[in-house]
Amino acid sequence: MNDPVLRLSGISKAYNAGLPNEVSVLRGIDLTVAPGEVVALVAPSGAGKSTLLHIAGLLDTPDSGTVEI
């Protein structure tokens, strides 16, 4: 069995954490991508797609959870 090329476990991210205008964008996201697998993220605007991709690409850090590449 091949190891995954990407594994996100328990990813959470909030903006303005602890403030009255806090926005929780991602809550407990798990995602595993196998070698050769094609994945599409489809969701409405503001759902956290770009935030998830920034975390998966190590451009941003999650508030909690792990990223394995």
Commentary on this structure:
The chain has one helix at 49-56; strands spanning 6-15, 23-33, 64-68. With 69 residues, the protein is mainly beta. It has a three-stranded antiparallel beta sheet, with helices on one face. The two termini are 16 Å apart.
What attributes does this structure have?
mainly beta; 1 helix
As residue ranges, the low-confidence spans are: none
* Fraction of residues in H or I helices: 10-25%
Helices, by number, come to: 1
Shape: elongated
Structural class: mainly beta
Question: How confident is the prediction overall: mean pLDDT?
Answer: 95
Total number of beta strands: 3
Order of helices and strands: EEHE
Q: Cα-atom Rg, whole angstroms?
A: 13 Å
Order of adjacent strands in the largest pleated sheet: 2-1-3
> What percent of residues are in strands?
35-45%
Profile the largest sheet: 3 strands, antiparallel
How far apart lie the N and C ends?
16 Å
